[in-house]
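Chapter review: from sequence to fold.
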Amino acid sequence: MPTSQQDGGGERLFHGGAGDGDGDGAAVAAAARQVWVPGPVIVGAGPSGLATAACLKARGVPSLVLDKDATVAASWRERTYERLRLHLPRGFCELPLAPPFPPGTPPYPTRDQFVAYLDAYARAFAVEPRLGSRVRAASYDAAIGFWRVAAVDEAGGAGETEFLSRWLVVATGENAVAAWPAEGVGAYRGAVMHTSSYKRGDEFAGKKVLVVGCGNSGMEVSLDLCNNGAATSMVVRDKIHVLPREILGISTFGLSVFLLKWFPIKWVDALLLIFSRLILGNIEKYGLRRPKIGPLQIKCSTGKTPVLDIGALKKIKNGEIKVVPAIHCFTEDGVEFVNGCREDFDAVIFATGYKSNVPSWLKEEEFFSESDGFPRKAFPHSWRGKNGLYATGFTKRGLQGTSYDAAMIAADIARRWTKSLAGPTAAADADHHETYIAN
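The token string follows.
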């Protein structure tokens, strides 16, 4: 029976064993205790989770935010390199309902400035996530019409708690875990890391370093290594678009957004490539081959972001960053490339991106794809599934996509929330009568 009212969104605690669920719900129902959450459970306390909780609160809907890490926005705070700046101007990186960045913030905020912005955002909307709560599994129990979310207390030693809610918001995002190449590093004996562990280049001064990957992270890490005295090589396996970060003093991204209001995407791509050729020159002679499809068309179809150059290309042109082909295999002291050449390296840094972790914990196969952990529906229809399941931060459109998702989710849940308050069960809850969920 219910014994206590908890803080943080009006949870009620239920002691006793969990009952049997349908299908996969049975695997989740072994929690030591149950907590009923009147509003939605949001998994993830990054920008997506914070934005959704803030939008819900603005509409009068409480929520419970769970996150496995010990801090808000841990991916930004702990798994990014020190030199990182936002690739887009600050105006395109603001979360919904929030004031602009503080006066004096540069056009492209640093990592620490963005983290401070997120901290201030959480305080402004009184979003207090339950940190250190790793969601082990979540599934929908059709017998009671609730989501069962089993979370393990990583720090407090409180064991496992099962949260029950009519709504589940998946806000773990596109970059939940580091993506490593399938082939591994074999017999290589040197230092190996992913960019999620990379902090600063002075740790590699005087060393030969191979960066595997040529996206924005690969380019920036290579530049940082080079600026700190490392002999840097960068693997370029695929064709890529490299664009200047600014064109005639205007953000390339902002210019693209403006032009797309008036012209077809193919025309905008053509114009961007003309400007890039004039500003950057012919990059293909340096081993950076461009795809035949334009940068915006690729972004829309695959989500792959073009590289916005902040100085790495100059280092490539003068030979300070060496462009090398794909890796055939690793050796004890380095690698053998596909062209047959071998080279020794002191360290290898994988700039191979990130991936969703949703398939590892969400027991649902219709809305989310098991292959990549993304919603099966494309933007702008990727935010809502069935049975009260929602997704935010999976649009491949950055923080603007997150803001769109958060606003749509909050509006939909608030409508259902208001409707439920008119019912007898909700009225009883409002009068603080005890509610028992039969299992």
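Two observations follow directly from the output. The chain has two domains: 33-176+356-421, 179-353. Residues 1-31, 424-439 have pLDDT under 50 and may be disordered.
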